[in-house]
Amino acid sequence: MTQPGIKVNCNAKECAFYHYDEKTGNVYCTHPEKRYYLKSHPCPLFRIDWQEKMKQLEIVEKKLNERKNKGESISDPKSSK
Fold first, then answer.
1. What whole-number distance in Å separates Cα of residue 71 and Cα of residue 50?
2. Other C-beta atoms lying within 10 Å of the C-beta of residue 17
3. Are 64 and 74 within 8 A, CB to CB?
4. For the chain, percent helix, then strand, then coil, each to nearest 5?
5. pLDDT tens, residue by residue, 10-68
6. Which residues have CB under 8 Å from 80's CB, separation 6+?
């Protein structure tokens, strides 16, 4: 089995190049130039995974619509302080 990139110590789960291997528990960076930036912090290659963010937003929107259809309040909890 080939590795999906370079093994790294990274917690930027929202990065488009982040890959977590559930079998081994290892984290890999799939960016082709990562080998040049192994010691760079913060990582200059970090890019938001917008497709994943859109999926998350769609899930939140679906949950809000379900609550709205049930007649539940969907007001901003910050505004009730």
1. 31
2. 22
3. yes
4. 35, 15, 50
5. 999 999 999 999 999 999 999 999 999 999 989 999 999 999 999 999 999 999 999 88
6. none
Task: Tell me the C-alpha to C-alpha distance, in Å, between residue 27 and each of 5, 13, 52, 59, 80.
Answer: 9, 10, 17, 25, 40
Assess contact for 3 and 28: CB atoms under 8 A: yes
Position 34, amino acid: K
- Please give the order of strands across the beta sheet that includes 6-8: 6-8, 26-29, 18-21
pLDDT above 90 (res 79): no
DSSP H or E run through 18: strand 18-21
Each domain of the chain, given as residue ranges in start order, spans 6-70
